[in-house]
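Batch manifest, entry 17 of 40.
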Amino acid sequence: MAARFERLGGIWRGHLVRDTPNATAPRRAAGIGGGTFALLTLLVIIICAGAVVALTQIKSLKTEIASLQRELHSSRERLARFDQAEKVREAEIKAAAEKSKALAQSLPQQPPLAFSREEVQLIREYIKPAPFTGPAAPAVNVGDPVTGGTIPLPSSLTEKVPKLVGARFAIRNGAIIIVRRDSQKADAVLPPY
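Output type: structure tokens
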């Protein structure tokens, strides 16, 4: 077996020696140089194309950044105007609240309305609340704030009871609540029958 391998090795070496004459070696080197040159040329062309694409992208990104900066600047200006308007509005609200608070404190506290028996009877004749059948809500007392709608008292009633001129009324839980002019609080409460 070893003899066979030696024989094959000899044939192979002889084949290689015969197939590669000295004249072909320089041609192969020249062929490799040409292929390498072509490969390098292709590589340079690809790099240049990539550079052109990159420069185009950079230019478009710079343009986009500039437009976004302009938009950001205008947005900041609008935001500053909105903030300024909000501060002015808050100052106006605060001033109005302080003014109304000062006005409420400066108004003299009026005593609650007191009615004689005849005046109460007269009011009940003009204002007749329907019987109350709903769920009981908290009772309204004199001095409590009156929320919801109020109705002006009839002029025929205010002619007979002059202290009710300009007053308004509301009905809660069957009780008649009377509010004086320019007041937000219950000045008199006539309980239900």
